[in-house]
Amino acid sequence: MQAIVSVQNLRKAYAGGFVALKDVSLDIEEGEILALLGPNGAGKTTLISTICGITVPSSGSITVGGHDTQTDFRAARELIGLVPQEINLEPFETVFNTVRFSRGLFGKPRNDALVEDILKQLSLYDKKDSKVMTLSGGMKRRVLIAKALSHEPRVLFLDEPTAGVDVELRKDMWDVVATLKASGVTIILTTHYIEEAEAIADRVGVISKGEILLVQDKADLMTQMGQKQLEITLSEAVTQIPQSLQSYGLDRSEDGLQLTYSYETTGERTGITALLNDLQASGLQMKDIQTRQSSLEDIFVGMVKEQA
User: Judging by beta carbons within 10 Å of its beta carbon (0-12, 13-18, 19+), is residue 287 exposed, middle or buried?
Assistant: First the structure.
């Protein structure tokens, strides 16, 4: 699949010496949803701002739809829609006029039918004549998305789109993102919510301290890096793990009633059969056994800790 956004060896350093982005290279494929995960200060917003032309890079190159963002800025920016973290809207203007005005800023001809279609797509049509100040926080975020879509961009950046939104509205927003993807829009979102990436992303990128640690298909990432845990509940508590079981790297719970064994999902042999046999031979009585798949959050936290 062709890359619609290509970032090569991007670096951003500020006058005080702080380096926000360090040799970042990233290709974003047309039609995909890419979730960019990272802790506060990782460089997520700086990366988006630089691609969108809001921040000037110190070195490196960025193209959007084949247009260089420095030498062919207008053509590149026309392909981009940006939904910022902050809700900054004219409170006394109507929803319809707010979106229509944004279209005009890009020099696009008036197209009320298109604006109405966007509002319908985002479940805002019944609010089109309402003043922005009367809307809920979740509805205001939808207005931000409508504004970003008003000039018909091919790429949409969502910077923390569900920040401060309750769980129900967050899931509604996921449905909106899925609908936008179905219409052919390429979507890049930054998020602190791991479940957001698990729910809607095709690929996941992890950024920390201004560096891209990886960009990989979500399912492949969880298969290759994920682990499963076998959680063994004992009939009686143990104060220490028997010497005969030391080689399995078991973790003992504080109350001594549970042992946890971690193993790779892609391994040819899990070692579970040998473990259970050795458990029985050691005299430990098992009350219950269950398995747990590691989540994307476990993988993300582990990677960031390794870099720290």
Answer: exposed
Give the CATH number for residue 247: 3.30.70
CA-atom Rg of the chain in angstroms? 24
| 80 shares its domain with 208 | yes
The angle subtended at Cα 111 by Cα 130 and Cα 103, nearest 5°, is 70
Q: How far apart, in Å, are the Cα atoms of 301 and each of 37, 39, 297?
A: 10, 9, 6
Number of domains within the chain: 2
- Closest by CA to 31, choosing from 145, 156, 152, is 156
- H or E stretch at 34: strand 33-37
CA distances to 28, 232, 266, 276, 291 from 263, in Å: 33, 14, 9, 14, 10
Question: Model confidence at 35, in pLDDT bands (50, 70, 90)?
Answer: very high
d(CA 48, CA 80): 11
CATH number at residue 188: 3.40.50.300
End position of a domain, from candidates 223, 246, 267: 223
Check whether 216 has a pLDDT greater than 70. yes
Same domain, 183 and 258: no
Look up the pTM and report it.
Answer: 0.75
Q: Which domain holds residue 197?
A: 3-223
**CA–CA separation, 57 and 42 (whole Å):** 16
Do residues 155 and 80 both lie within one domain? yes
